[in-house]
Fold these 3 entries.
Entry 1:
Amino acid sequence: MNLLHTVHVPAGEGPFPTVIAIHGWGASAHDLLGLAPYFLDGEAMVICPQGQVEVPIGPGALGYGWFPLRSGLMPDPSEVLASAEELRQFVLAALAHYPADLERVALLGFSQGGVMAYELGLRETSRFAGIAALSTWFPPQLAEAVPARPEHEGFPVLMIHGTEDFVVPVERARESRETLRPYGVTLTYREFPMAHEIRPSALEVIQHWLLERALGRETG
């Protein structure tokens, strides 16, 4: 597999419902792994890939991103799409390598990782059980590149955003909510009085959404 990653595999033989958890700018493959005990009470497999754009975060310390960010400029769609394709190939390999229930694979992305989750999930709604988009946005340039497929009506999308988020202002989430309408998704949208973070109240909503909307169903 072409990306560094961490993984939580529950006890047992599987196959397991699976969350692909995609970190944000300046973080790493370890950033979201700590949420694994909260996803289906630890019974979901959680795979956390790491972006390859190096981000200096302090003296001698590096974080990682998925595509370059330039002050005052919107993301370059070609860079987003190239990174998303690399991530897509990783996901395919990881799902073949680990004991994943291929009928129950959800994408979860925080901040820049949410942009990646939108690209992967909306392009291939038949492959994934839903998208949890946290403190993120759906760039208009990306929306132009990802076909709207209203025939996939009912595809679950959870959007969670902080009203005090000064990294990705809540107005961008509200705009993204409107951008998503042509995609025929079943949208759950929640705002919380928080900054660019995941607070316990938001995590509780994620837990319920995964159980009730994305990964909790039985397959046969």
Entry 2:
Amino acid sequence: MTTIGFIGSGHIGSTLARLAIDAGHDVVMSNSRGPETLADLVAELGPHARAATPDEAGRAADIAVVTVPLRAVGSVPVAPLEGKVVIDTNNYYPQRDGQVPALDDESTTTAELLQAHLPTSRVVKAFNHIRFGDLATQGQAAGTTGRRALAIAGDDAEAKATVAALIEDFGYDVLDAGPLAEGWRFQRDTPGYIVRLDRAQLAAALGSARRYAEMG
């Protein structure tokens, strides 16, 4: 049994927590407002869930999920996540996050920003190109024709294998998009973003993705 620690417990975090519990894992939920604000969520999730601070969730985690707005990435605890696999679910929305020059000029990606903040962790980009409602309902058994595929990106092969196994447990095929620097291929406004695609279709979508500057 794996313990998955959540830094952020919004729509994506709580949906992933439900899937994790259904797959036989324990979860530790946290947010910026304090464990007491998660009492209803933890009660709903049941005995395999508990609430904690972000530091506590990070320390307890075998795998951590960072699912906070981009503007809050600097508050993600560093030391508790040392050496751990960290899943980044984020997308960049300037209207929410403010302008980030390095993302505006496309010299980096959201996951690379998190990796820079967590230099001793092993960051994998995942779950950022599916709506939380779809994530909760579209999982299917392995081998199902037309099974939806989700993309991952990361610089550590072992970490990507760990996350891929989790995604498979949740009912989705996996497409490895390559290193973190390739994570832009399934960010917002790209052909693979929030569209239901099988693995072959997703591979084609990622291959046709263009940088924002090229899109005009």
Entry 3:
Amino acid sequence: MIKRGRPRKGEELLSRDRLLDTASSLFLEHGYGNLSLETIAKEARVSMRTIYSQFGGKAGLFGAMIRRCSDQFVTSLSEEHVLASSPEDVLISFAKQFLHGITRPDVVRMRAMLVGESPRFPDLAIQFYEQGPQRTLEHLSQFFARQQQAGYFVVTDPYFLAEQFLGVLRSERILKLQLGLEPTPDEAKIDAWVRQAVGLFLHGSLKNGQGGARDNTAEQVGQNH
């Protein structure tokens, strides 16, 4: 009888991706509370032991699914990518991938499920926030900190800059999308959305000479953190 050894790294990644894909579909179909790990394991053709050893349980599996989604845009903030591009180009690249990710119909549905079920399952809320929004904010704040050292951005709390950038980027359109009041944006609409948001964030909304006295708000915010 031929004994099968441990799967190769590529095979392990394929197996992991298949499991996460299956879990994502099942979470959308059944919700979080109504879905058992047994069902996920059966549909993904893996053992319960595999899920527990790799993810620690259902909340950890959900967190890994969210982390994989955030990988798609936080990698654009890597130091290697940043060194090869201007800060504005990096923000545009990040913003396009971010909006493509969070405006997908399945992601919008997943977020609605999270809002509905997180009060009953605090571990679900923690995993989502840590692997999604918090991780994104941390990568963005590191990007802004590096660019502050290079003299590109004002000296203020880089985490605050990251929060403000994401706030400008999401805007009211995300709420409309979640409420079904707007269709999923296509590539052209996302491109226009991103360029307007990045332009406003980098250059502000006042015309030259219209600000009056010098505004020290940004510096005050940084000093107060």
